[in-house]
Design goal:
By secondary structure, this protein is of the alpha/beta class. It has 8 helices and 9 strands. It has one domain: Acetylglutamate kinase-like (Carbamate kinase, 3-Layer(aba) Sandwich), CATH 3.40.1160.10. A 9-stranded mixed β-sheet has the order 4-3-5-2-1-6-8-9-7, sandwiched between helices. The radius of gyration is 17 Å and the shape is globular. The chain binds uridine-5'-diphosphate. The site of uridine-5'-diphosphate (UDP) has 25 residues, from helix 2, helix 3 and helix 5. The site of uridine-5'-diphosphate has 25 residues, from helix 2, helix 3 and helix 5. Keywords: ATP-binding, Cytoplasm, Kinase, Nucleotide-binding, Pyrimidine biosynthesis, Transferase. It is an enzyme of class 2 (transferase). Catalyzes the reversible phosphorylation of UMP to UDP.
Length: 237
């Protein structure tokens, strides 16, 4: 390992990361590729916690706008994250990576409940631990779930895998002169409302000194590269 700054990381994957061109919510080929990235990181010696979102299947806020009660819609969204977690677990197992899924909403026939000390033990044994159902409460997002689990599991950083290669001072799709930050302060992200994660997640990372590394997960080999300190990313710190 050439970058000793991070040993244990939490990888946050939006549900959309599992989608393919064909519009499948969980594309097996895309999911397998993401699993391969996780395997490479594991084999490079990093300890990995993963939090998966559910936006590819169900988003509470959008459903609430169409008339479903917000809390109910959010519980439906949390169930969607469990489906994604099982898909990622399956893809990892198919390439020989030992994993456990822990859900914030207990579902004993499907996966383990979230138990911090047990998760710790899994990591010590070299397993990848996938956390599902966010924080387990409505009116939150899986970004908050990721920040919370990163703090609880004493992760050295939260890696946010997106489809852009970092945080820009303006929308790079609209503003040709937009510049990518190498590093940016939590306070700048919050004050300028830069689209990194929701504000409560950023505040939780700030209060617990957890850097947020924003990088492009769609680029093959990028997770391992960024972990080694080589790839392109923005660090919020
Ligand atoms: N959700 C929730 N509480 C949580 C995490 C998620 O209510 O702690 C619900 C919420 O409705 C959200 C949905 O689950 O819209 C899917 O999660 P998210 O939108 O964070 O997924 P992502 O955008 O990362 O794919």
């Amino acid at each position: 390992m050439t970058n000793p700054r991070f040993k244990r990381i939490l990888l946050k994957l939006s549900g959309e990361v599992l989608m393919g061109e064909g519009g499948l919510a969980i594309d097996p080929v895309v999911t397998a590729r993401v699993a391969g990235e996780i395997k490479d990181a594991r084999e490079a010696g990093f300890e990995l916690c993963v939090v998966v979102g559910g936006g590819n299947i169900f988003r509470g806020l959008s459903a609430a706008a169409k008339g479903i009660e917000r809390a109910t819609a959010d519980y439906m969204g949390m169930l969607a994250t469990v489906m994604n977690a099982l898909a990622v677990q399956n893809a990892l197992e198919q390439i020989g990576v030992d994993t456990r899924v822990q859900s914030a909403i207990p579902m004993q026939s499907v996966c383990e409940p979230f138990i911090r000390r047990r998760a710790e033990r899994h990591l010590e044994k070299g397993r990848v631990v996938i956390f599902a159902a966010g924080v387990g409460s409505p009116f939150f997002t899986t970004d908050s779930g990721a920040a919370l689990r990163a703090a609880e599991m004493k992760c050295d950083a939260l890696f946010k895998g997106t489809s852009v290669d970092g945080v820009y001072d303006a929308d790079p799709k609209k503003v040709a002169t937009a510049k990518r930050y190498e590093t940016v302060a939590y306070s700048t992200v919050l004050a300028q409302d830069l689209k990194v994660m929701d504000a409560s997640a950023i505040a939780l990372c700030r209060d617990n000194n957890i850097p947020i590394v924003v990088f492009n997960i769609r680029e093959a080999g990028n997770l391992a590269a960024v972990l080694q300190g080589d790839g392109v990313s923005t660090i919020v710190q």
